[in-house]
Amino acid sequence: xxxxxxxxxxxxxxxxxxxxxxxxxxxxxxxxxxxxxxxxxxxxxxxxxxxxxxxxxxxxxxxxxxxxxxxxxxxxxxxxxxxxxxxxxxxxxxxxxxxxxxxxxxxxxxxxxxxxxxxxxxxxxxxxxxxxxxxxxxxxxxxxxxxxxxxxxxxxxxxxxxxxxxxxxxxxxxxxxxxxxxxxxx
Length: 186
Prior knowledge:
Blueprint: H1 2-60, H2 69-84, H3 87-96, H4 100-121, H5 127-156, H6 159-170, H7 172-179
Helix pairs in contact: 1-2, 1-3, 1-4, 1-5, 3-4, 4-5, 6-7
């Protein structure tokens, strides 16, 4: 009878560990895919903005245009689609939850929309000033935000990040109690 009881406990523990392993591995897969999609999305938007900036700069300084007006319009339409799309935002909310990563993504989206707005309304007389403003926005806000977002997403896509999220979400009371014992890093 004792052996049967030991076997049942062993089977129960093994089942629980298997479920935890499957959950963590599936979360890892989903978060990794979303991470790559967010990075690609950000790269594509920045590439479009860079091309629009080069076009506008060349147009305002009477240099040879690398892009035709049709290419410019196509890039502008494509950028509009990317900026108004909510697919990546929703995937992030599903994979990572509505946490700091999502806030960083929304802030990055706001900054990118501001740059797109500046580039679209730029005039010949103000082109140089607005070009400097765009460069400054990239240097001071967009690039640091992108790097911070990617670091947070990479941290959340690790096994440790996933287990911590499971711990916080599945056992919130226990997390609140035990988090008081852990001293924050300063």
